[in-house]
Amino acid sequence: MSDDSTAPAVPPGGRRSALAIVLGVAVAAIVILAALLQLVEGPIGLALVGVVLVLTPTARRLGRRLALNGSIGLGLIPLLWWVRLPLPNGIGRFDIVIAVLYGFIAYRLACGPTQRATILPTFSRIDWVFVGEAALLVWLFRPFEKYSAGTGAVSMLMGAYGNDDVAHFNIFEMIRRNGVIGSGWGTPADGTLFAYVPYPQHFHALVAFAAESWIGPGISSVDREVGAFGVGTAIVISIAVITLVAAIVSLRQLRHSPGLAVIAAVAVPGFLVLGLGAQSFSYGFPGFLLAVIGTVIAIVLASDTRRTRITQLLAVSALAILVAHCWSLFGPLAGLAWLVVVLRRPWRRFHRRLVAGSVEALVVLATVAAVGFAAWLVVDATRAAGSPEQALATPGAVPVSPLTAMCAIAIAVIALAWARLSLARRGVLLRDRPWASAGLFGLVALVALGEGVVLIYLQFRIVRSLGYFQYKFFNGLFLVVAILLVVQVLVTIAPILAAWNSGREPRRSASEIVTTTIGIGLVSLSILTFATIPANPQSSLADFRPQGLIVRNDLAIAAVTPNARVGRILEAAAVMADQPCARPVFVDPGSKKKMAEANQWAMSLSATWTEGASSISSYIYERTELRSTAQIETTIRTILEGAADRCVVLSPASLESLRPEVRSDFSGRLISW
User: Fold this and answer.
1) DSSP states along 560-612
2) Average pLDDT score, the chain
3) pTM of the full structure
């Protein structure tokens, strides 16, 4: 008898699994090869991300799947930059993630009909809102894609995208150059630390991931890096907005109400990217806006009345990490949502589901550790101010929203939550778990108001007026409670309208009228919030524009408006990037009152911004009223006499205007292009 006759037969299922694994590995290898050939960049890379969000099988329905996949990606992808990975040249983290996910999808497709059926989500009429949402965001952020390279990209960043982005681009670029967050940047030539090493960098790592999908992992020219920062920011915010809309419209109460889902899909971007939230771009706060969106997504996911699954725990945990590492003052709100999800898990049956329970416990512990790391970063970053309390009194420019309007909306959320709880207790129309939805929304609004009171108290202990962080917190809180109010209204009237629709035709018509009226009101409130009102009574309605359209227009104008200052900064950055000394400084008298900003932009664009250089930048800020050549020469002398490792970069015209004795005194330390 031969050996073959005695060998056990390979079961068909085992053979299919082996072939599925081979296919998955082959697809992943093809993606890696395409990445090496630079075939997965630009619009193709963005399309690959969209397909992954749709096909990764975390839920059956498309809306729920987008909500979970978007949340998990936004919260966990930046963790890949917490350590330096030994990646080969030409391959980035984006390529690895996309290859693994496409390999997994191919594996599931080859496993058989049962597994294959989980890949394609279940579609419904509501899902058209995601197409409309994506089209709106593509149109709104079109300037970033249109001017993604050249001086136009740099002009947009400096002229219309918010001066705080001088720091945010610097962090983004340092992550791109070093392949790791601040703790792994090493020591600069001047022996201090690179600037913003302890700054929370979750948002910047996300943008670096998006930038890899657009221009690849390798460092490119300065203008393309700036363009990738703009495009990457637009991609991250767009995915976050779509994720939030998906979380809302996939709520059980709204799943069978397309009209109400459309209201949510229009009102949410109205608040976030067309109304008040659009100011985050003109002031350079995109990471702050991401924290606001992440907070609301976490609350909405936690309010879901369906049985809590591991994917929901993972998604809300990821969002808690996102918020803690983007803007920690919203941490208590996202943390409350996370705590609700954790407490709803069946931990009492842990011994019966040891493997699954162990995975969930690991997720919880990892979340606590990651949030703890964020708290440590915040404390470390505030040491320069003396204490976190003193850091809260830091001055800065920020738009101011009406505090009374925010309080009124928060109180409305609380009142509506109480009304829903009362109706639920009496069994009137509402059959969902009241604590999971209404109670959570009301509690979040109450905690938010309490945190605002604490911030006001801490601020008044130091100075007798509200400041940068307080106003910024209340601006974000306005967006959080406003969107929660929209969701509260929609999920409250959904069962009422469903009851009406089950009756005669007049009732159905009445429900349509109610839906239309509420929709117009909520959408108008969101889109027209903080719109520019024309001062001229003769102006047309075309002059009455939401903030988002104003920001979009300003970006387009800045991109096509020639600016000699931008050219000088780019030239200076090119010189400084070659490291002519340990601590290069750009002095640009032509920038007048923005001379210190010009130096910061030059340091940011050249990746030479250090803590040692920050003190020089502060000195230049004090000298912004320079008018004469003598004052400029005094400033240059003070900088160069402070340490031998400093050099000053000047434009050819500025260098020529200096007195010969100044040029001779510091020969070799005055540099031009």
Assistant:
1) HS--HHHHHHHHHHHHHHT-SSSEEEE--GGGGGGHHHHHHHHHHHHT--BHH
2) 84
3) 0.90
